[in-house]
Design a protein that fits this description.
The complex is a heterodimer of chains A (about 500) and B (about 240).
Chain A lengths: L1 H8 L5 H13 L9 H8 L3 E2 L12 E3 L2 H7 L12 H13 L10 E4 H5 L8 H18 L6 E4 L5 H13 L5 E6 L6 H14 L3 E4 H4 L6 E4 L3 E4 L2 E10 H6 L4 H30 L2 H4 L1 H4 L8 E8 L1 H8 L10 H20 L13 E4 L24 H12 L8 E5 L7 H14 L3 E6 L4 E3 L4 E3 H8 L7 H12 L11
Parallel strand pairs in A: 3-4, 4-5, 5-6, 9-10, 10-11, 12-13
Antiparallel strand pairs in A: 1-9, 2-9, 6-13, 7-8, 14-15
Helix pairs in contact in A: 1-2, 5-7, 7-8, 8-9, 9-18, 12-16, 15-16, 17-18, 19-20
Chain B lengths: L1 E10 L7 E6 L23 E3 L1 H9 L7 E5 L7 H18 L4 E6 L9 H6 L2 E5 L5 H8 L4 H13 L3 E8 L6 H15 L5 E5 L17 H13 L4 E3 L1
Parallel strand pairs in B: 2-4, 4-5, 5-6, 6-7, 7-8, 8-9
Antiparallel strand pairs in B: 1-2, 1-3
Helix pairs in contact in B: 1-2, 5-6
Classes of the chains: A alpha/beta (about 500), B alpha/beta (about 240).
The complex binds iron/sulfur cluster.
Chain lengths: ~500, ~240
């Protein structure tokens, strides 16, 4: 109750943030999920972490509505007819976004925005489109006050896509996050270069390897912190395994790989299965929510994300003294053994209601949370341990990205001179993608917007928050401590 | 073997895209504004004798992230035999790894390209410095009298579609920028071919001697040069 009192009386939380925090507190008074003793043990040790998903899930964590279908068909529940012109489309989307639930209470996926917009702008001048887009984006940024919200572009170049990039660069906002799906055979260089240039100005968009990610499901989108999920579906849950905490509990690698890791994975997988069952069988979401009833999402297109964090520290824990993940073969081999063991487990474990994933939990390189001290995002190389050469860095990530179907990424700060030669940065992206890198994000070392673990935060907002002032974006609260604790200011800046 | 000053694995300022840039030791002229004066001497303790194979080991590390290599200097054409072998090796590597690689030369244009047909066969283009047009201005700037060769190279490279870009370091009073622009425009017209021009702002960084503390030309001055270039029908970028 002390918690609730402190939420109610906080001066650092905005009104909306208080409402969300109170709902969370209420949900957590229930205990509807089975919690066997060993599972409880791993939760208490922080080895398994449900990322504040709450004790009684009443909606899937991430929802990826089929916006294209909604725009074609209209939404009965919201009394929205199919939009006929650009203004109607933007209003339609604003209303619909407002009603898409998620773990953050804000929509985490805004659709393939360029494709949604393109058919509606034929008769409008660039200036008219940009003026309307600007207002639309300002509305999104100020009402979706959480930068885990993501819109997608590409892989085709469209006029809409180019105008979205222009507006994004002018506005310098944290929302929406953008990702360009990039396929060298489809995406023209000049469009990819415009995206990279924009990214070096405002840390947005990130670039996703369309060739590899398109193999994961028939239709995919990128949501939240680089989650690769089926469109018209989503993810029931994301629970994560904090590998270094488990490593520290074991006496050697043998015990880790053969005893504790399998046991912890089994506990986590059973826990995730219980969450899935509760959402599908008890919460009533799929029976009652309009997104399901009007079939903008399909129950059998939801997956469940089996998250991992801190592969680097776990590998380093077992590596010979001084050998490090990212630069030493010994540590990298241990990391591979760990990944092989985890892959073998999820391949063999059958979970309920995950038809599109062949009834399997799907691995996800979880990017971390604000209280992770000394634990590196997913399978990334720790800040400070990055190889001297960016080429070696990218070769390394390509080697580990192949394990992860539902999202893994690298974030590279680039020297500002990169802006003068986006083609060179594109060459690097092409090279990395050809080797198997799945996802890459940049920002320029001088930009106000920085990528924390995946989401964007303004350095200027972090300063305000650190001084104790209320800030609009929820993610600033997460970003401020992470920026400091993960030493993100020390990420190796790549000169180009 | 060549005398290599340094290799930059990832360069974005030595031609299109991301490239591995190789800087050879030794130059045959003495530009007052040279910002790599340490590369001028034909011998230097910090330069390293390297074989084609040794340089190729470095180039390989850039695959598949680079679009090609650029050899610069000093004046790399003073080691043209080496360049020929290096470029041949790069082309062979491109075949081997199925990744196209281009080979560019960054040159002051004082060595006639026409005399190196084998090299030109494996070279994808030359970024040519035009230091000055008037012979006396050229001499005062470079202490050399080989400007006619530069002009012949300009025409020859253009005719052979090997002129990637013309580079002009803009330093008012010491470099006759306007005259250079007028004359290259004339040559472009007479041959009926074009190449982009890059107007590089003089920067005192690294410069030694009389120009060490010389101010950079102003934005307005650079804009004027760019406007002149445009009015002459040249595609020019300012850097
Ligand atoms: S040609 Fe280049 S390396 Fe030689 S002196 Fe001139 S600026 Fe320096």
């Amino acid at each position: 109750m002390a918690d609730i009192y402190s939420i109610v009386t906080s001066q650092k939380l905005s009104y909306e943030q208080k409402v969300v925090a109170l709902a969370h507190a209420a949900e957590d008074t229930l205990s509807v999920l089975p919690m066997p003793e060993r599972t409880r043990f791993y939760f208490d040790k922080g080895v398994i972490c449900n990322l504040n998903e709450g004790n009684a899930p009443y909606r899937p964590r991430y929802i990826m509505p089929d916006y294209e279908k909604a725009v074609k068909q209209g939404v009965k529940f919201l009394e929205l007819d199919p939009p006929q012109d650009f203004d109607e489309l933007l209003t339609f989307l604003q209303v619909l976004y407002r009603h898409v639930p998620s773990i953050t209470t804000y929509p985490v996926f805004l659709g393939d925005l360029d494709k949604l917009i393109e058919p509606f702008i034929k008769d409008l001048s660039d200036e008219e489109v940009k003026r309307k887009l600007r207002n639309f984006f300002i509305y999104l940024d100020r009402t979706i006050t959480d930068s885990f919200c993501h819109a997608n572009l590409g892989p085709e170049a469209t006029r809409a896509g180019r105008l979205i990039l222009d507006v994004d660069r002018e506005l310098e906002q944290a929302v929406p996050n953008l990702t360009l799906k990039y396929d060298p055979a489809i995406t023209p260089d000049d469009f990819a270069e415009q995206a990279i240039y924009t990214s070096l100005c405002v840390a947005n968009p990130a670039i996703c390897n369309d060739v590899l990610n398109a193999k994961t499901y028939d239709r995919y989108g990128i949501s939240s912190c680089y989650n690769i999920l089926p469109i018209a579906g989503g993810s029931y849950t994301l629970t994560r395994l904090v590998l270094p905490r488990l490593a520290e509990m074991t006496k050697d690698k043998e015990e880790f790989l053969t005893k504790l890791l399998p046991e912890a994975m089994k506990c986590m997988a059973d826990y995730m299965s219980a969450r899935i069952r509760f959402i599908v069988e008890k919460s009533g979401f799929f029976e009652s929510h309009f997104l399901a009833k009007e079939r903008f999402v399909e129950r059998d297109r939801f997956v469940a994300m089996f998250g991992l964090v801190g592969l680097a520290e776990a590998a380093n824990h077992f590596a010979p003294e001084g050998k490090k993940y990212g630069s030493d073969a010994e540590a990298d081999e241990i990391a591979e053994q760990i990944m092989d063991a985890i892959t073998a487990f999820v391949d063999a474990y059958e979970c309920p209601y995950c038809e599109i994933a062949n009834h399997r939990l799907l691995l996800h390189a979880q990017v971390g949370i604000d209280t992770d001290y000394g634990i590196t995002s997913g399978i990334r190389i720790p800040v400070g341990d990055e190889p001297e050469s960016i080429y070696d860095h990218l070769r390394h990530s390509s080697r580990f990205h192949r394990y992860i179907p539902t999202g893994c990424s690298d974030i590279l700060p680039f020297d500002i001179t990169g802006k003068q030669n986006p083609a060179a940065v594109l060459d690097i992206v092409k090279g990395a993608f050809s080797l198997g890198q799945k996802y890459i994000a940049f920002y320029a070392s001088d930009s106000d917007l920085v990528r924390i673990t995946g989401y964007l935060v303004k350095r200027s907002e972090i300063e305000k928050w650190n001084k104790g002032q209320a800030v609009l974006q929820n993610t600033t609260q997460l970003g401020a401590p992470t920026y400091a604790s993960a030493h993100l200011a020390n990420r190796k800046v790549r000169g180009v | 073997m060549a005398l290599v000053r340094k290799i930059i694995a990832q360069s974005t300022v030595d031609g299109p895209g991301n490239r591995t840039a190789i800087f050879l030791q030794g130059c045959n002229i003495r530009c007052a504004y040279c910002h790599n004066p340490e590369t001028q001497a034909m011998q230097d303790a910090e330069a390293k004798e390297m074989s084609v194979a040794e340089v190729m080991t470095e180039v390989r590390k850039g695959i598949p992230f680079i679009r090609g290599i650029t050899v610069s200097g000093g004046e790399c054409m003073l080691q043209a035999e080496f360049l020929t072998k290096l470029f041949q090796a790069v082309k062979a590597l491109a075949e081997e790894v199925h990744h196209p690689l281009t080979c560019l030369i960054d040159s002051n244009g004082t060595v006639p390209f026409a005399r190196h047909p084998q090299l030109m066969e494996v070279c994808d283009g030359v970024m040519l410095d035009v230091k000055a047009w008037d012979s006396e201005t050229y001499h005062l700037l470079t202490q050399a009298r080989n400007d006619e060769v530069v002009k012949e190279n300009l025409a020859w490279l253009l005719q052979h579609h090997l002129l990637t870009e013309v580079r002009i370091v803009c330093l008012p009073k010491r470099v006759d920028v306007e005259v250079i622009l007028q004359n290259i425009a004339k040559i472009f017209d007479s041959i009926g071919e074009k190449a982009p021009a890059r107007l590089l702002r003089f920067r005192p960084h690294g410069v030694i001697g009389e120009l060490a503390n010389h101010p950079m030309p102003s934005d307005e001055q650079m804009a004027e040069y760019a406007a002149l270039a445009a009015s002459l029908g040249l595609t020019a970028t300012v850097k």
